[in-house]
């Protein structure tokens, strides 16, 4: 074989190595490409994104195309290298050519291209996708032949041919939010996690319980009603007649009632009733996500929560749901929280028994939890199974809970020491018993 023929074959081998590197890099880049970044690139009409999307829509055919082409050029390069080696150095040349080509293919057609593709998947995917798409279309008939035998193989061994694509779960979304925290910030990340929490929380978790609902009996004298309205911290109150349980008239919008009375210059019950909206009832167990959409659909901001027997168990407003997302933002909720918690020292607190358990967990990163329990009082009653004596202690993880004040209805004050935060060396750590 003359030197010109050998040179020509070497050039072809070089082209095969480049082609192999192209297919290796394309495979790794496309299969590691972030689908959400791809969707963003499509919206931005970025060059190559449309072709990458089309290729990934048929990922099984894409893999077949790449494997067929990559193996073909590798086999071709090996065959030609054998011919060149034999032409140059006989049988010894075959062995040398095989060893050299194996090293070159591993380094320059596998390791280096795939490493670059992992580090720059978007750039390589969008740059190589148009050319790969042309190859994909050309090789499609051959791919169908191989896929035909693949399908027969799967049927013989009863292997599912195509797995159904599933939506991202809440936990997977949480991982995405957590990974993007450095980009969006902790506050935004916490807000997005709170939105995901709405799906597993029900109205009972955040409602105002029955005994805390501000309600007005329309049969009271007008002066008493006006006094109650002036003292109410809320923008709406429940209005009932005779009995709160038997006949709820609706939700009174306080500002609207004052406006109507000012217009007519008459402080009468008739004007109050005109400002009353028909109540909407919410079944217990309704998730916060669903109730948020229910409020939107009904164009209302507040509703009455009832149990399966129709008895009122609480009240919930759209503000309560929004506070679960963004945290306490109203003056009343912030002041209520401050009244519930007295700071004695770093890591040592005196807390009201009616303090909301979820608010405490969120504020201090604790994990106090019990089934069907909303308050700290309820949590300890659940653990002691009775009203404990003053001085009784309960330890959970790094928290020491000490009963400080009780009455015949429950626990009024609890001292909590967070051993992780407690820095006072002058106080001896209390012994704890369950």
Q: How would you summarize the topology of this molecule?
A:
Blueprint: H1 3-31, H2 35-43, H3 49-57, H4 59-119, H5 121-156, H6 170-179, H7 181-184, H8 186-197, H9 203-206, E1 208-209, E2 215-217, H10 222-231, E3 236-240, E4 248-253, H11 254-264, H12 269-274, E5 276-277, E6 281-283, H13 288-298, E7 302-306, E8 312-317, H14 318-326, H15 331-340, E9 341-345, E10 348-352, H16 357-364, H17 376-384, E11 393-396, E12 399-407, E13 410-418
Parallel strand pairs: 2-3, 6-7
Antiparallel strand pairs: 1-8, 3-4, 4-5, 7-8, 9-10, 10-13, 11-12, 12-13
Helix pairs in contact: 1-4, 1-5, 2-3, 3-5, 4-5, 6-8
Describe the protein in words.
The chain is α+β, with helices and mostly antiparallel strands. The chain has 4 domains: about 5-155, no CATH class; about 170-200, no CATH class; about 205-325, CBS-domain (Roll); about 340-425, Uridine Diphospho-n-acetylenolpyruvylglucosamine Reductase, domain 3 (2-Layer Sandwich). Helices cover about 55% and strands about 15% of the residues. It contains 17 helices and 13 strands. A 5-stranded antiparallel beta sheet has the order 9-10-13-12-11. A 4-stranded mixed beta sheet has the order 1-8-7-6. Strands 2-3-4-5 form a 4-stranded mixed beta sheet. Strand 3 and strand 4 (about 250-255) form a beta hairpin.
């Amino acid at each position: 074989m003359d030197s010109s023929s050998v040179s020509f074959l070497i050039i072809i081998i070089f082209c095969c190595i480049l082609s192999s590197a192209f297919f290796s890099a394309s495979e790794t880049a496309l299969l590691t490409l972030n689908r959400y970044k791809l969707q963003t690139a499509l919206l931005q009409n970025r060059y190559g994104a449309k072709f990458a999307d089309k290729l990934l829509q048929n990922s099984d055919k894409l893999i077949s195309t790449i494997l067929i082409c990559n193996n073909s050029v590798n086999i071709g390069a090996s065959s030609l290298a054998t011919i060149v080696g034999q032409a140059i150095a006989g049988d010894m040349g075959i062995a040398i050519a095989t060893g050299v080509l194996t090293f070159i293919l591993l380094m320059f057609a596998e390791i280096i291209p795939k490493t670059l593709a992992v580090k720059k998947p978007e750039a390589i995917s969008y740059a190589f996708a148009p050319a790969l798409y042309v190859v994909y279309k050309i090789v499609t008939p051959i791919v169908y032949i191989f896929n035909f035998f693949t399908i027969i193989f799967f049927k013989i061994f009863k292997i599912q041919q195509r797995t159904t694509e599933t939506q991202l779960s809440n936990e997977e979304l949480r991982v995405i939010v957590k990974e993007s925290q450095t980009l969006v910030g902790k506050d935004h990340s916490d807000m997005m996690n709170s939105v995901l929490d709405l799906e597993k929380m029900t109205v009972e978790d955040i409602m105002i319980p029955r005994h805390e609902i501000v309600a007005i009996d329309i049969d009271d004298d007008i002066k008493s009603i006006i006094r109650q309205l002036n003292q109410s911290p809320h923008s709406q109150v429940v209005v009932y007649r005779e009995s709160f349980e038997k006949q709820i008239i609706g939700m009174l919008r306080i500002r609207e009632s004052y406006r109507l009375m000012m217009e007519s210059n008459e402080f009468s019950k008739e004007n109050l009733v005109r400002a009353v909206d028909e109540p909407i009832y919410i079944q217990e167990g309704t998730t916060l996500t669903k109730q948020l959409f229910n409020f939107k659909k009904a164009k209302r901001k507040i509703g009455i929560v009832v149990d399966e027997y129709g008895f009122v168990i609480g009240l919930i407003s759209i503000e309560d749901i929004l506070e679960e997302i963004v945290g306490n933002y109203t003056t009343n909720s912030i002041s209520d929280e401050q009244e519930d918690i007295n700071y004695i020292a770093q890591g040592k607190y005196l807390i009201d028994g009616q303090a909301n358990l979820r608010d405490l967990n969120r504020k201090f990163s604790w994990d106090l939890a019990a089934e069907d329990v909303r308050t700290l009082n309820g949590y300890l009653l659940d653990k002691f199974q009775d009203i404990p004596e003053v001085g009784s202690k309960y330890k959970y993880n790094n928290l020491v809970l000490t009963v400080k004040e009780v009455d015949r209805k429950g626990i009024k004050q609890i001292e909590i020491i967070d051993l992780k935060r407690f820095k006072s060396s002058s106080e001896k750590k209390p012994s704890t018993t369950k």
